Amino acid sequence: MARMKFVCDAERCIECNGCVTACKNEHEVPWGVNRRRVVTMNDGVPGEKSISVACMHCSDAPCMAVCPVNCFYRTDEGVVLHNKDTCIGCGYCSYACPFGAPQ
Asked: Are 19 and 8 in contact (CB under 8 A)?
């Protein structure tokens, strides 16, 4: 389903958000928008793990399928992108994405 991946070693992640900061810096992402985020599973209980998650650029992207105005598109390289000028903010993509990538 997904073409591109960002490998995160959940055993070594310390929730420093360095990956989030590096992504914002590299892609010049505006303040208040994150392409990547750190999620903690089983927070506060033994076995707690943190992992960095973002868009997986799915070959059959659910966000693209549910968008009523077709604001998502795929580049020739297979990267799924979002046109903010077309988006109406309905949030269907957020519900459809198994990775919670659209924000």
From this structure: yes
